[in-house]
Specification:
Length: 395
């Protein structure tokens, strides 16, 4: 009799296991829930996670969306057509509310102080004020908002938040639209994952919008989730076409260790940026970064650098190492920057604090730079050489 009862129990357990396995394999909602559980229990606690050991609520509210001071040092060891190394101190401010930015640098070529080169920005325009270049000043209207803001999180995104909202998440997954497609994503390690297209209907997900510190959107939100055979998320893509047609943000990798941002520009141009966590340093947080601008003629302008950051008592300590700017395969400049960032209260006007005088700035149409960037860069470098011609005996 005991053997018979044991056999029945084993059969029931096996049947339940088969049912659960089938549910996870064929029920999209169950697979999505399984992926959420894995993310909250495993990925959030993994050192390879993009935001591991970063307080996103503090970072967004007190730095990205706030008024900040920064100071540090910069070193340019290679500049195309300019045979001298350049070093200097940098300091400035950024205000998200004012949509203003300042950067003042006092530059040295070898042991000679050759003056300031200042950079300012407001709304969509960048200003270069450069006594180093014989007093030449330029302004560039980029046509893009230079001061995007991040979500003002009302809670930290952590295990506790997922635990507190498990009922909300369960009900939410039942209400969203989920469609499995034939699209396959192959991760860097060769793992394949299937796409599940998700539509969040207008009016759903109040607890998510509350977390993000924003009003619920007045339109549907679309994204794609790519799940491997263990229902672990290998990629999630947020469609931003409701703001900019064709734009998206993707978070990629076994432990969500990389973010990709794609932004189309007018005239069939585009910008692609990637940030990937790299834990092979002594810094608390280390990232490998690339920003690439593709012109309508097919030319690529890229900036590659490693970014290191640590939280310190008075803010954030940072280093940008192995900075390299290239035009297609030609290196335009290489360098290094380090410094600290701190929150600034009662900042006042950014431009007034920097004693900025933009009255004589010549605004250049971006198309002029875009269509003949090489000539513009050569002209600027030639002017810089003329202003340090005291060093020409080294040639």
């Amino acid at each position: 009799m005991k053997k018979k009862k044991l056999g029945i129990i084993i059969v029931v357990v096996l049947a339940l296991a088969i049912i659960i396995k089938a549910e996870l394999n064929y029920n999209p909602s169950a697979r999505i829930l399984a992926s959420v559980i894995h993310f909250s229990e495993s990925t959030l606690n993994n050192p390879d996670y993009l935001a591991y050991n970063i307080d996103l609520k503090d970072l967004f509210r007190n730095y990205t969306n706030a008024d900040i001071d920064y100071s540090g040092n910069a070193y340019i060891k290679k500049l195309k057509g300019f045979p001298y190394s350049i070093s200097g101190g940098i300091k400035g401010q950024r205000s998200a509310s004012q949509k203003k930015f300042s950067c003042k640098s006092n530059l040295d070529v070898l042991v000679l102080d050759v003056g300031e080169m200042d950079v300012y920005a407001q709304d969509e325009t960048v200003y270069l004020v450069a006594p180093l270049l014989g007093g030449i000043s330029y302004g560039f209207d980029t046509g893009s908002d230079l001061f995007p803001t991040a979500p003002n999180l009302n809670n930290d995104i952590n295990h506790e938040w997922f635990h507190q909202n498990k009922r909300n998440i369960y009900e939410f997954v039942k209400k969203i639209q989920i469609e499995k497609t034939d699209v396959i994503f192959v991760d860097e390690d060769g793992t394949e994952s299937n796409e599940f297209r998700i539509t969040i209907p207008k009016g759903e997900g109040d607890f998510i919008w509350q977390l993000l510190g924003m009003d619920a959107p007045d339109h549907d939100i679309k994204c794609s989730l790519f799940l491997d055979r263990f229902n672990h998320t290998r990629k999630i893509t947020f469609d931003l076409s409701y703001k900019t047609p064709g734009a998206y943000i993707s978070i990629v990798g076994k432990n969500f260790n990389k973010i990709e941002i794609f932004a189309p520009l007018p005239d069939n141009e585009r910008v692609v940026a990637t940030i990937k966590r790299n834990g092979q340093t002594n810094y608390t947080n280390s990232f490998t970064n690339n920003i690439t601008y593709i012109t309508d003629t097919g030319s690529n302008y890229s900036m590659d650098f490693n970014f290191l950051m640590n939280y310190v008592d008075d803010g954030i300590k940072f280093e940008a190492t192995d900075v390299s700017v290239t035009q297609d395969s030609t290196v335009l400049t290489e360098g290094y920057i380090n410094g600290t960032i701190s929150t600034k209260e009662n900042m006042g006007d950014v431009f007034e604090n920097a004693h900025a005088d933009l009255s004589a700035v010549t605004i250049i149409d971006w198309d002029r730079i875009k269509n003949d960037t090489a000539s513009f860069v050569d002209d600027v470098i030639s002017q810089a050489r003329e202003n340090v011609d005291v060093l020409n005996f080294f040639d």
